[in-house]
Amino acid sequence: MFKRANFDELVNKSIPFFIVVCLYGISQKIFGYSPVEINWIQSGLSFADEREFIGGGDVRPFSTFASMPEFTLFIAIFLYYFTIEKKRWYIIFAVIMLYIAGSRGVFISTLIAYFFTFFVKRYSSWYLFLAFLASLTIFLCLVFVFPIIFNSQEETTRMLAYGTFNGRVELLNRVLETSSASYLFTGVDIKSMGLEPTFDNFYFMLTAHFGVFGGLYFLFFFLRPKVNKKNYYFFAIFLGYGFYADMVFSYYLMFLFFFAIYSYSDSLISTKSQLQTSLTPANNHLSNNIC
To answer: Residue 103 and residue 98: Cα distance in Å, rounded?
Structure first.
């Protein structure tokens, strides 16, 4: 289904919707949630926990989406398209909206993916691994260095709040204290340990449920498509955001990822055709000389 979707055409036609969605997100930030949205937050159906919608008294907009991560990823999709099409004012607007949306995991992962995609400009599995290492390094800094610089009780801004990162470390320590090395291969008995099925960490979740080899098996097939410019950008976001959330438990979030990764792009096809066309005369000339 996703392979038949035209990424450029669909995103281009959705720009008016993107603007409306962003403006509504801004209105949520300014005026707060409506009664309907509060009912949705309290329903427990969202990917994000109820406590995450309001952090430190700061309203986190999610616009018309299920929660903040989906909203932020939606903006990241348009940021890629605007950059490809060189729409400068739209790029600035999208970056501002990334910050306003306030999903730190997607925000940080998008910045890393954007840097490697549009500044490093090397699209291969090796450079995707480098982007993964960059995301891991920043995640570890946020967990261990960030709390030394900022005190979560003193900061009221959601983007600078440390609490949720601290919670991830405490959960990890709890599991490690009651686990053995064999769990790396067999997975963790979640029920006996009294743990929730989600861990706010994609890699830890895969290891806990399926063991190391099961987790690698999943990643192998998910990352199997040939890496190109578009895939690289969204693969990098996915791998980076995995340190902050269990994305696979959100249908809404994975739908956006699948569309962005597996859809085809006219811009990539045209670039490839132009490259082949430019190389053809040279190849013909070389062939004639050889003959």
So the answer is: 8
CA distances to 43, 58, 96, 136 from 208, in Å: 27, 33, 36, 19
Residue 287 confidence class, pLDDT cut points 50, 70, 90 = very low
pTM: 0.81
The DSSP secondary-structure symbol of 153 reads T
Burial of 59 (0-12, 13-18, 19+ CB in 10 A): middle
Tokens representing residue 139 in the block? 């995640």
Q: Strand locations in the chain, DSSP E?
A: 54-55, 58-59
| Inter-axis angle of helices 88-101 and 15-31, nearest 10 | 40
Residues 126, 124: Cα–Cα separation, whole Å: 5
Distance, CA of 55 to CA of 157 (rounded, Å): 8
The rounded distance, in Å, linking the Cα atoms of 5 and 213 is: 32
Residue 157 zone, left/alpha/beta (φ > 0; ψ -120 to 50; rest): beta
Among the residue ranges 66-70, 246-250, 255-259, 284-288, the one predicted with the least confidence is: 284-288
Kindly tell me if the per-residue pLDDT of 275 is higher than 50: no
The H helix count followed by the E strand count for the chain is 14, 2
Q: What is the dihedral of CA 195, 200, 206, 210, to 10 degrees?
A: 10
Higher pLDDT, 283 or 58: 58
DSSP codes of every residue in 51-110: GGSEETTEE---TTSSSHHHHHHHHHHHHHHHHHTT-HHHHHHHHHHHHHH--HHHHHHH
